[in-house]
Amino acid sequence: MVYVNRLRNCSRTMRTCTLRVRMPISSDLSNPRNFITKITRYEKVVDIPNSMTILDELLPISLEMAKRNLTGIWNFTNPGW
């Protein structure tokens, strides 16, 4: 997020759209960056509710946002517990 803020501060006229994700999950379980894939390798897992992002659901929404030229910082998490 630090780099995004630096980029946004370079020019006040720059119109950017930042989509912030948390614990990204996709249907592609072979992707090593998939949260489900990562957590299976952890020795210990905490059981504290947290926000997550379902990437398969994020894509169509992000495309629609681009078509509408939306800007700003958006927290992209799915409803949790």
- The end-to-end span amounts to 25 Å
Principal-axes shape call: elongated
| Strand segment tally | 4
Report the uncertain regions: none
- Please state the average pLDDT score: 85
Helix/strand/pairing category: alpha/beta
Radius of gyration: 15 Å
Q: How many helical elements?
A: 3
List the strand order in the largest sheet. 1-4
Main sheet attributes: strand count, strand direction, barrel closure:
2 strands, parallel
Oligomer: single chain
Order of helices and strands: HEEHEHE
Number of domain modules: 1
Structure, explained:
There is one protein chain. The chain is of the alpha/beta class and 81 residues long. Helix content is 33%, strand content 17%. The chain has helices spanning 2-10, 35-39, 55-67, and strands at residues 17-21, 24-25, 53-54, 72-76. It starts with a helix and ends in a 5-residue tail after the last strand. The mean pLDDT is 85.
How would you concisely characterize the structure shown here?
With 81 residues, the protein is of the alpha/beta class. It has helices at residues 2-10, 35-39, 55-67, and strands spanning 17-21, 24-25, 53-54, 72-76.
Keywords:
81 residues, alpha/beta, two-stranded parallel sheet, two-stranded parallel ribbon, elongated
Topology of this structure?
Elements: H1 2-10, E1 17-21, E2 24-25, H2 35-39, E3 53-54, H3 55-67, E4 72-76
Parallel strand pairs: 1-4, 2-3
